[in-house]
Amino acid sequence: MDLALLGNMSIILITAVIVLLVFNKLKLPTMIGLFFTGIVLGHAINDTSLISTVSELGVIFLLFIIGLEFSVEKFSSIKRYALIGGFLQVSITTILISALGLILGLSPNSALFFGFLVAFSSTAIVMKIMQQRHITHSVQGRVTLGILIFQDIAVIIVILITPLLGGHELAFNNLPSLIVKCIGLVVMLYVGAKWFIPLALRDAAKTKNRDLFLLLTLFICMGTTFGTSLIGIGPELGAFIAGLLISNTEYSHQTLGYIQPFQDVFMSIFFISIGLMVNLHLFLYNIVTILVLTVIILVIKFTATLITGMALKLPSKVTISIAVLLSQIGEFSFVLAREGMNYGLMTNQFFSVFLGVSILTMSATPFLEKMTPKIVRLFNNIDYFDIDEELMTLPEEIEDPQDISDHVILVGLGRNGKHMARACKKFNIPYRIVDMNPVIVENQQAMGLPVIYGKGSNESVLKELGITSALCIVISSSTYDETIKTIDAARRLNPDIHIIVRTRYLKNLDDVIEAGADEVIPKEFETSIMMFTRIMDYYNKDVDEITDAVNDLRSNNYDAFRSVTSEDISTYLNHKYTNLEVDSLRVSEDRSIDDFPFTENSLTITGVIRGKDTFIDVTPHFKLLANDLIVFVGHRENINKFFDAI
């Protein structure tokens, strides 16, 4: 391994950690800290080739995730705002910025390219802000997402026409082979989307092997990206297509959760790499020009989006919020800028100025977003703008009939999950289900159940289930470790949600409650309680007495059983002993256990009930008191012999 390379990466990472710690203390946005890290290290790192390669992976994963999150259902409700709004916003911004470029002395082609660069906003920054502010599913959030989707697709088109703007003519002699390659790619993608990818993901999911599923997902992403690159289409389009292929399967939400950490890491390195490209000398030398251009571009982009919102007849408050969110220059503009450099559309000095302006607009976005209420109040003083505080003029087209709130999330669709789903349906309680068995998910989806594939501990899956607006989550079919992770994720995403857990063993009860569960139901003692209920019914106890006894056993999270180890009642009464039967004996006077022929008849004592107390560790010399109830198990013929003997 190249030690110099390893040393550079170590320096970058530790510097980023230190800078982000400081920025976190100062409550400054993380993104600015990443830019600052790159700028600080700009003169210390000589070889940035690997860093640039890794940062490009961040862009690929970002577009892959955008493709994953894209769905026909979600897009259909905002298609008018994505297509018309996106086209208007990009077109108006491009025209105004191109005019500015001509004023600055750029050639027509360079000015148009400059307009394209500025027209695109940062998907990564805007989406993160919307998630932090919990406005992703609001009116402004969904319209903003629609415009961002249009921009992301438009970026790919601009990348394709950049050579033409640079004066390069199309090689028509290569056109036939290009057409053949494109047809081959379309056929391959169709076959992949229709058969290969769904079946491959289904088989991988059935193994419940996380590594296998993750590697297959990465292969789909990288393989599709490589395939599109072979015919001259940029990797960005390939990554977006790969995401689209998976988005139409039920595995998209779980895939998103697996890929998200990769995207976050690579995008962080991407922002650092942008800082590394900054020539500090040129930046300071042109600081006045950069500051003036930053203000002008923020105003132009805000104005273009404002005009777009007015054309779409959106409420003024919504339009202003969207205009603030989309006022920065995006990360894909850096990818375009590199292409422009290759085709002579930008000089080194102009690239340095553009870099500085881009970083400042991106860094300003979090602060401007916090100032949105003040900006709204300023516009409220203008008679032309009628600010609708309550958004009473919400357009019907962007109302989502699929939105759900105050619902129950069921983690696991086993026997208990199905019972709870039926109960929710019977009593008209809204619910959503998640399960890790792809066969069950497919079958139940075909029957109309609202179930998706994934892990309950996956934040992307929980968000798809509407965790932030849910009232309750029931975790009933996970391993202990997975249960703890699910509780943690649910509590972080919705601190007020009521969490009910069905755990296998009582010994895990304290840990599960400490992890954040509100109620815990140990499976083993629910079995015991059912048996005790049958026993009391056998002794002709009335319903109230049985209810009181059960409530007493369940009170205080089974405190009456806290001394019980794993060798308790249900250990003897689990599914392995289906040929055994339960019976009991009421003691009429003070006796000892060894006074009764339990051992001689191969019977096993599971416990002694004395009033509100239950004793499990019963030895042969255990002293019995009058009215004690001995619970035991054994074969029916042995039980009969026992009663005949006494």
Give a description of the structure.
The chain is of the alpha/beta class and 646 residues long. Helix content is 63%, strand content 8%. The chain is built from 27 helices and 12 strands. The strands form 3 sheets. A 6-stranded parallel sheet has the order 3-2-1-4-5-6, with helices on both faces. Strands 7-12-9-10 form a 4-stranded antiparallel sheet. Strands 8-11 form a two-stranded antiparallel sheet. α23 links the parallel β5 and β6 (519-522). α5 runs antiparallel to α14 and α6 (108-119) runs antiparallel to α8. The radius of gyration is 32 Å and the shape is elongated. The N and C termini lie far apart (81 Å). Mean pLDDT is 78; it is low at 390-402 and 560-578.
Number of helices: 27
Q: How are the strands of the largest sheet arranged?
A: 3-2-1-4-5-6
Derived from helix and strand composition plus strand pairing, the structural class reads alpha/beta
Name the poorly predicted regions. 390-402, 560-578
Radius of gyration: 32 Å
Number of strands: 12
Q: Based on CA inertia axes, which overall geometry fits?
A: elongated
Strand content: 5-15%
Helix content class? 55-70%
The profile of the biggest β sheet is: 6 strands, parallel
The N- to C-terminal Cα distance equals 81 Å
Mean pLDDT across every amino acid position: 78
Question: What are the defining features of this structure?
Answer:
single chain; 646 residues; alpha/beta; six-stranded parallel β-sheet; four-stranded antiparallel β-sheet; 27 helices; elongated
